[in-house]
Amino acid sequence: MGLKKYEGLIIDTHNDTMMKAVDPVTQVPCIDIGQDTNFNIDLTKMEKGNVNIAYFAAFTEDYGDVETNNHRILASINALFHVEKMNPGRFAVAKSFSQMMHDITLGKRIGVATIEGAYSINAANMAGLMKQYADLHVKAIAPVWNHSNLLGEGTYSKFVDETDSSNGLTTLGEAFVKTMSELNMMVDVSHMNEATFWDVVKHTKRPIIASHSGASGIKSHLRNLKDDQLLAIRNTGGVVNVVFCRYFLGDEFADLSVLIDHIEYIAALIGDEHVGLGSDFDGATMPVKLEDISRVPEIITGLRERNFSENAIANIMGNNNLRLLKSFDTQDQNRKRLELLTVPVILSNAQTIEWSLDSDMVGIITESITFLWDGILLKCHYNDLDKKIVAQSNFIIKQRYHVATIEFKDQENNIYFCTSISELK
């Protein structure tokens, strides 16, 4: 008699694959994961491992200024959409819950856009830029990575210049957490110190996730969560996704059994309804013999050997995170998305941005147009003669990737918008 077949969904809530899929200098997509690669994740490996959904992080540390940090984030998001463009029959970026589930029935792998380290955010751009990230279908954001920033303290409790930080979430960070809730994005607590963690718990009313963390009760490590933190995530209705990094789980010899130890420990403490998988593929050293995403089904075998029920296994492998994706799916019914065939173009003076409009849009354009550029409202005008919106920046645009949004009302006060990534070539 053969092994029982697993019929449920498999979801992995963290990887750094897009960071490796772009050119390290230009950040332009250079490797299509629709092709076979030496990465921990590509589409063939996802298909072999029957992994339905993977969260692809747009990672940034603090590169010194918000324009550069935003450029790095947008480069990874752009690369994720590039995978969809190059592999339309095999891969789709998650845009809505219903679209995602439909694409799964078609056999497609799903990529969920997330951000690891919101170093692009400051007081001037926060409200606008977060709205633009939501428009780009970002579903979860970790406010900090290892180094602290304007939002709060990271894992190291130090800024990138090695000076000490203090006091957890800042006032701006508190507003950030509130705004994430309003925009239906999950707060990821995997990279923050304890003070920031508890401030997030205090200031959110929505489920939170740890996208890739282990249990401190098994392995005392700066990146792992203590029992009271695990319980706090459960109490929000959230999910703790167990990281695969062998050094967070144990030591250089950590294997599948050690990963199962962490899953078993956390499930015993907070219930299997609040545990998931967050590998950190392409960003960490994987457990022995769990080298890539094609091997993920071996976790099912390991859980069965520990006498987990089939229902518990389905929860851990995917259902818990699917529940959160559905609960954060509320759409803004007051804004109607337009998919333009064009993208904003930065002119040679590096301060003027033009956005040509599709001819079928012209009839609904009014004078009440707003233009948002990297979270900042710019002055703009609509040139009726050549059907272009022209905006003027008060600074020289230096980095390659930026995000632009146009928004306007028609004569019946319906709100239309389009958000697009722009590339300085």
Set out the fold topology:
Layout lengths: L10 E5 L1 H4 L22 H6 L4 E7 L6 H21 L4 E3 L3 H9 L3 E8 L9 H10 L2 E5 L28 H12 L3 E2 L6 H10 L5 E5 L13 H10 L2 E4 L3 H4 L6 H15 L4 E3 L19 H9 L4 H18 L7 E3 L7 E2 L5 E5 L12 E5 L2 E8 L4 E5 L8 E9 L5 E9 L2
Parallel strand pairs: 1-2, 2-4, 3-4, 4-5, 5-6, 7-8, 8-9, 10-17
Antiparallel strand pairs: 11-12, 12-15, 13-14, 13-16, 14-15, 16-17
Summed up:
The chain has 425 residues and is an alpha/beta fold. Helices cover 30% and strands 21% of the residues.
How would you describe the overall organization of this protein?
- With 425 residues, the protein is α/β, with parallel strands linked by helices.
- The chain has two domains: 11-327, TIM Barrel (Alpha-Beta Barrel), CATH 3.20.20.140; 335-423, Immunoglobulins (Immunoglobulin-like, Sandwich).
- It is built from twelve helices and 17 strands.
- The protein has helices spanning 17-20, 43-48, 66-86, 97-105, 126-135, 171-182, 194-203, 227-236, 246-249, 256-270, 297-305, 310-327; strands spanning 11-15, 53-59, 91-93, 109-116, 138-142, 186-187, 209-213, 239-242, 275-277, 335-337, 345-346, 352-356, 369-373, 376-383, 388-392, 401-409, 415-423.
- An eight-stranded mixed beta sheet has the order 10-17-16-13-14-15-12-11. Strands 1, 2, 3, 4, 5 and 6 form a six-stranded parallel beta sheet that branches. The protein has a three-stranded parallel beta sheet with strand order 7-8-9.
- Strand 14 and strand 15 form a beta hairpin.
- Helix 10 (256-270) crosses helix 11.
- The mean pLDDT is 94.
- Its EC number is 3.4.13.-.
- Keywords: Dipeptidase, Hydrolase, Protease.
- GO terms for molecular function: dipeptidase activity.
- This is Membrane dipeptidase.
- InterPro entries: Metal_Hydrolase, Pept_M19.
